[in-house]
Amino acid sequence: MDQFPELVEQAARDRAAFRFTHYAQELAGLFHAFYTNCHVITDDAALTKARLALCDAVRIVLSLSLSLLGISAPERM
């Protein structure tokens, strides 16, 4: 996710919007694996806080990726 700004720059420069679809799919897959294998809410307050921050960061980056593609991101399913 830390390379997302560079992805935006490259996609704009190369007029290659498809990069966002690949990126969003990969990020969603990685997050799904994380969420399947790790408890977000734990007895360790610091770990819970870090994992919640990660979840929020993924939400933001996926939302931005979809927005750049002209796709709305629902807040609830």
Write down the overall mean pLDDT: 93
Terminal residue distance: 23 Å
Query: Uncertain segments of ≥5 residues (pLDDT<50)?
Result: none
Helix fraction by DSSP (H/I, runs of at least 4) = over 70%
Features:
mainly alpha
Fold and architecture overview:
The chain has 77 residues and is mainly α. The chain contains 3 helices and no strands. Helix 2 runs antiparallel to helix 3. The two termini are 23 Å apart. The model has no long low-confidence stretch (mean pLDDT 93).
Question: What's this, in brief?
Answer:
The chain is mostly helical.
Structural topology:
Elements: H1 4-14, H2 18-37, H3 45-68
Helix pairs in contact: 2-3
